[in-house]
């Protein structure tokens, strides 16, 4: 019985693999009013524009919509922001400032909703936000099955800016890990057969 437990533990450890490294986009490489589409490897934006702080000559009203870091954010442009990932991710998060209630909806490859979250306030801009709110609210969605697209939308056509988008790719076992897993499974089957033979004798 102890042998079974050891083998099962080994299989569990091998199957898990190392957690994937998080990727953060701070958008500092973008220019003011640049349409954001496929500038970043692994994902594609729609209805998205870059805004640089007015403090350095850009178009962003940084008084109401201050960046979380640096001087550049992305904002909605004629519709809800959508982000499509080339490969499924386990989670997505970011810092949001919004003038109307905000909803994040995550979808899988079949466009089924796998997670959703809403803002804590109806607005969190610096001068017009709800009492107790502050700009750059951290919001996130996650799904064990994987997220392939994300929709970011405000109620009543309100504005939203996003900074420091972070996503975590789904961990995929490396080929060596799969080989080790197969070896461990074979060892477990061999032990089971040997114990059956021992009981029969």
Features:
201 residues, alpha+beta, Jelly Rolls, nine-stranded antiparallel beta sheet, 2 helices, 20% helix, elongated
Notes on the protein architecture:
By secondary structure, this protein is of the alpha+beta class. The protein folds into two domains: 1-17 and 173-201; 19-172, Protein of unknown function DUF4465 (Jelly Rolls, Sandwich). Helix content is 20%, strand content 37%. The protein has two helices and nine strands, in the order αβββββββββα. The protein has helices at residues 2-16, 175-200; strands at 23-25, 43-46, 48-52, 72-76, 81-98, 102-107, 113-118, 137-154, 160-169. Strands 1, 2, 3, 4, 5, 6, 7, 8 and 9 form a nine-stranded antiparallel β-sheet that branches. Strand 6 (102-107) and strand 7 (113-118) form a beta hairpin. Helix 1 packs antiparallel against helix 2. The longest helix is centred in the last third of the chain and has 26 residues, at 175-200. The radius of gyration is 23 Å and the shape is elongated. The protein starts with a helix and ends with a helix.
């Amino acid at each position: 019985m102890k042998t079974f437990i050891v083998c099962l533990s080994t299989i569990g450890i091998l199957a898990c693999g190392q957690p994937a490294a998080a990727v953060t986009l701070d958008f500092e490489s973008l220019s003011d009013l640049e349409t954001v589409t496929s500038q970043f490897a692994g994902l594609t934006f729609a209805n998205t524009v870059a805004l640089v702080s007015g403090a350095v000559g850009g178009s962003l009203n940084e008084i109401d919509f201050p960046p979380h870091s640096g001087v550049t954010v992305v904002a909605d442009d004629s519709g809800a922001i959508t982000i499509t990932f080339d490969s499924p991710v386990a989670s997505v998060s970011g810092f949001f400032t919004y003038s109307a209630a905000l909803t994040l909806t995550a979808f899988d490859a079949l466009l089924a909703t796998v997670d959703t979250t809403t803002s804590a306030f109806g607005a969190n801009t610096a001068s017009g936000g709800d009492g107790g709110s502050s700009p750059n609210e951290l919001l996130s969605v996650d799904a064990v099955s994987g997220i392939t697209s994300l929709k970011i939308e405000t109620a009543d056509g309100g504005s939203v800016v996003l900074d420091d988008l972070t996503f975590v790719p789904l961990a995929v076992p490396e080929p060596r890990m799969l080989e080790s897993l197969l070896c461990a499974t074979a060892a477990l089957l061999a032990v089971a057969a040997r114990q059956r033979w021992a009981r029969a004798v």
